[in-house]
Amino acid sequence: MSAPTPTRPATLGAQLARRKPVERLQAEAAEGVDGTPLRRSLGVWQLTMISVGATLGTGILVVLGTAVPLAGPAVWIAFVLAGVAALLSALSYAEMAGAVPTSGSSYSYAYATMGEGIAWVCGWCLVLEYAVSVAAVAVGAGQYVDETLRVFGLHLPEAIAAPPGAGGLVNLPAAVIVVVATLVLVPGAKESAWVNTAMVVVKIALLVFFVVVAFTAFSTQHFSPLAPMGAAGVSAAASRLFFSYIGFDAASTAGEEAKDPRRDLPRAIIGSIAIITVLYILVAVAAIGARPWERFSADEASLVRIVTQVTGQPWLAVVFSVGAVIAIASVVLTVLYGQTRILLTMARDGLVPRMFGRVSPRTGTPVVGTLVVGGVVAVAAALVPLGALADATSIGTLVAFALVNASVIVLRRSRPDLERSYRVPLYPVTPLLGIAFCLYLVASLGWITWLAFGIWMAVGIALYLLWGRRHSALA
Fold first, then answer.
1. pTM, to two decimals
2. Cα distance between residue 288 and residue 430, in whole Å
3. How far does CA 284 lie from the centroid of its chain?
4. Cα–Cα distance between 319 and 286 in angstroms, integer?
5. CB 173 within 8 A of CB 141
6. Is the alpha carbon torsion for 397, 400, 404, 406 positive or negative?
7. Spatial distance between the Cα atoms of 149 and 131, rounded to a whole number of angstroms
8. Cβ atoms of 244 and 24 closer than 8 Å
9. Mind listing the pLDDT tens digit for each residue in 159-194?
10. Half-sphere exposure of 393 (CA within 13 A, CB side)
């Protein structure tokens, strides 16, 4: 008998194009890595709060001061533009989450529709979106901790309140918040979801309180001229403020821990983006109405200053600053959660080391992966300035969102018979508009951001060629 002919290794092109069937994604989600699946314990309320928790607060509490100098009083229009782009992508996320209810979010959607190469690009963008955005949000915590201490005549030394390049040596408050969030995530998704829900309620109340206070000092004169920097300034601000909407897709990373993912994930995603957009616009309008746009600065906690100036009560600054730190902690907690679940799915596919996919039988969570991610993000939050992180995160997110919109179109054509609990309205206009808005906002980002993104993607391609290509489960 002749020896069997050895199988020729697949070419790089064939490897990049191979797709993962939806049925296999769902089967692997049920089995988990090493036979230990994630626990299904989250209902629609917790899922919505995960998305709101991952999103609400970042743009208003951290990035608003950097966007107002770009757009002037028209910053609220910039929020609307960024919100429309996010909403269009949210509708596509809702359809894909109902059709492919796994923890991989847009990475899994791309794997099922456009192949391993695009899936890797999307997954690498998600690492940029989630891990880096956690660090960026945490960086802003130092400002609010300092505002709290000011009321008592104290001051946080700049050396430990800001990272290198921003006047300090290490941002200690940012690192501490990331470490605490990491430890909260370890016991289980249900426990951390309840902690997050409590924090979300606090920050919604905080922003509503700010709107009420700011409107007592509202002046329409602050809105003239509306757009002193022109349309280009509004577009640039919208691109930066898109960072504020990062996280609404966090519910899609909980696909394997949702009790009824096909029904609840679309509801949570669309409901959260509606809540977030309304609150952002209200707070932006109230802030400009209470304070001339020329007085906004990137190096201060703008909303706290407005509350203090309007009320003349320093103790309110303490309440607001503490609430702001809680709001930031909520974002850190939920976005860090999303990052660990995406890496878990990529580990299951062999594209990242297997340790990220191991689920503890005792807690039902990826303990080792959570601790590793938390440690890396804590270091980044302590050492990297906010502006560089926020812009780099926006471009990675916009690319991932564009791919999700494209996934809807591809899956509709390739699997028209697939069960979908939600369908994008006005198909294919809605996903095509979603792609167009993402490309429009990407084009408004500066060349330094593009350079940073290019370096990030080059590193990602190298990692795929050196590791992912050889360890892929589909090989």
1. 0.80
2. 32
3. 20
4. 19
5. yes
6. positive
7. 29
8. no
9. 787 767 767 788 888 888 889 888 888 876 667 778
10. 28
